[in-house]
Amino acid sequence: xxxxxxxxxxxxxxxxxxxxxLAEYPEKPxxxxxxxxxxxxxxxxxxxxxxxxxxxxGEGASIVVKNMPGASGQIxxxxxxNADPDGYTLGTFNLPGMMAxxxxxxxxxxxxxxxxxxxxxxxxxxIVTSKNSGLDTLDKLIAEAKENPFAVTVGMxxxxxxxxxxxIKLQNATETEFTIVPFKGxxxxxxxxxxxxxxxxxxxxxxxxxxxxxxxxLGVATKERSPFAPDLPTFQExxxxxxxxxxxxxxxxxxxxxxxxxxxxxxxxxxxxxxxFLDAMAATANPVEVVTGDDFKQLTSDLYDLAKGVWETTPWx
Amino acid sequence: MYADLLHAxxxxxxxxxxxxxxxxxxxGIVVGAMPGxxxxxxxxxxxxxxxxxxxxxxxxxxxxxxNGAMYGGAIPAVLLRIxxxxxxxxxxxDGYPMAQKGEGGFALQVAVVSSAFGGIAxxxxxxxxxxxxxxxxxLFGPSEVFWVAVFGLASIIFLLGGNPVKGLISACFxxxxxVIGSDPIYGNDRFTFGQLEMLDGINxxxxxxxxxxxxxxxxxxxxxxxxxxxxxxxxxxxxIWKALPRMNYWKTWLRGSFIGIWIGILPGAGGSxxxxxxYNEARRTSKHPExxxxxxxxxxxxxxxxxxxxxxxxxxxALTLGIPGTAVAAVMLGGLLVxxxxxxxxxxxxxxxxxxxxxxxxxxxxxxxxxxxxxxxxNSFARLLNLxxxxxxxxxxxxxxxxxxxxxxxxxxxxxxxxxxxxxxVMDRLKFPLPPVVLGLILGGFAEENLRLALRIGRxxxxxxxxxxxxxxxxxxxxxxxxxxxxxxxxxxxRKSA
Lengths: 317, 498
What we know:
The complex is a heterodimer of chains A (317) and B (498). Chain A has 317 residues and is of the alpha/beta class. Chain A has helices at 2-23, 41-57, 74-81, 97-104, 138-147, 162-174, 186-194, 205-208, 258-269, 275-283, 293-313, and strands at residues 30-34, 63-67, 89-95, 114-130, 153-156, 179-182, 200-204, 215-220, 245-253, 288-292. In chain A, helix 2 links the parallel strand 1 (30-34) and strand 2. In chain A, helix 2 (41-57) crosses helix 9 and helix 4 (97-104) packs across helix 11. Chain B has 498 residues and is mostly helical. Chain B has helices at residues 2-7, 9-12, 15-33, 39-46, 55-72, 74-80, 91-100, 104-139, 142-158, 164-179, 204-222, 229-233, 240-243, 250-265, 271-284, 297-313, 315-321, 327-338, 347-350, 352-379, 389-408, 411-429, 435-457, 469-497, and strands at residues 181-182, 189-190. Chain B has a two-stranded antiparallel sheet with strand order 1-2. Classes of the chains: A alpha/beta (317), B mainly alpha (498). The interface between A and B is large, with 51 and 46 residues.
């Protein structure tokens, strides 16, 4: 009799122990909301990172990527901002776009709506010119822009994005004026450059890596040379203080339980030292720069201030 | 390069890779045949699943779906006058009258053979001519693309026959719908009534399903007792090999392939414009144009050959420049990115086996279409008309709702579709042509965006629109399309009176 009781008691205790272990985060699949359709740059980042996050969250963690495309990512990020802060809904986050949207239109979120997990990708801007423009150095380009204000046409993706802010920084730094031609996305802008329909373009380094023979790439907007094109000088090397890029990372709704937040931050911070992850990102042309937690929050805040400042002097719509 | 092409061939025949193409073609036909489900959607649903697949399995599925769906769209277009995909609108012109005359089976066979012909021609263009054709794409800057859109709109209004004023009104409605959403340059909201769902504009599938599928369904349900039994009993389900010799449309096929490939390499316009242009041209050069629109098999051939001929060619700018020629090509580009295939001139050098293997898969997808589509079409889909009309109508409504809901997974789109359905029903009753609405939505956005980009490049000077030969040729073609029919009529009248 006693034996049976003992057995039952032990079995019960084991079940309880197992239950306690299960209750530890994450005990069910974690959803990552991507505000763009499958196959886009942000989606590829999320799906490439997912198995590594699962690995660092520990046994049994599973991540499900959910695409909610629309309104330049705003629908998805709004959903993530307003989700239950239990750690089971995360979202992707794009800078400066997500902050610019809080300025140029009404948004149901602001910079305090999020728990900042990690920025993962930093795709720096490059300035390129078409082969037939004859503007094959930065000096020639700036000289031309100074001589004939608004004569240089600049192809880029939409207004209020990283390309646009890079141009504004360029204009302010060099006291020049350009004519902005905002295409729907970078690929059409690049094609217009290849065809010589616009003279200059502001793109991201991952977008021109395959086209360096067909375009003049004048420099990259980073502090140090990019591993994507080690022979390409930075603007700072050329005497122009221009650092700018497009960033993509992960956020959660504000107000996560502390243990959950700590666990997530720990998992994300291990990405930067995982060679397998870095290789996978390089294969999809994603320059990695991992910035986690408070630093990421600060980064977002800085970009918000920049966008706000630009908006106040030169609103784009 | 041609050595690379041959080198890629063995991999294509690996069991899993080839099976992927077969599955893709069958799935594509089914998806294309359902009103509301399109190749774009099927491939975007597929893309996330391809992460774990070998590249050629994933790409084979996509190539198969693309080819299959472009033909599949013809099935409901012929049988029910409901185009399954935007590109199948022109197929309804003669396909549906053929089905009414009891030649539905033959119409489907013409459609499948023509689709395969166009697909094969397009695959060859992609395999052999991609680099030179991508240089043609570069000639088309914003002002040229603007004129392409204007030319397309003018053709649909003035060449389609019927009443040009009604055509113009329909096209204006389409262009108006294209204006909804955020403005392409500044991003200001237009006619969105504060709805986040409308910021990206109206998805073409929502409009197509509403306009085209709801009115025929209402017709079906209005007269529930009338049967199509007479038609379906004579569907003409002879084997495709017996029907083949009756199809002597070589000129139409070659012309349609040429048009389709050409439109495919231009950014944006896509299969529906190709099908209309091919149909117009084939009718214009026909010896008996009066039979067109009343069940002329050559009309089905013209439309179907062209909407498949732009499939592979739309990938030429997608692979070489990263700008997709059609919405489907855009989604496929995403599928390529997932596998680390970055579009650009280096793609062909860095991953020749995969890129050229993908091209072969397009070719085999098109060839398989005859075998798989031929038997599926006549033996199963054509029997659809045997169903009781209330049942058929309700099934279609269910499919429409599911299809539209699944685009973004939201009810908002379903209500929108029903609204367009009501408008479509009224327009149908008042004999307003529906094709200009579809093209108006597709081309209107393009025309606006590119006009504004061109004017910015010209710093406000409209002369930028007339500054090079390509633009001027397109302007001349547009004028010819507008005044051509009138001049021709005058000429015939004056000969009669003389």
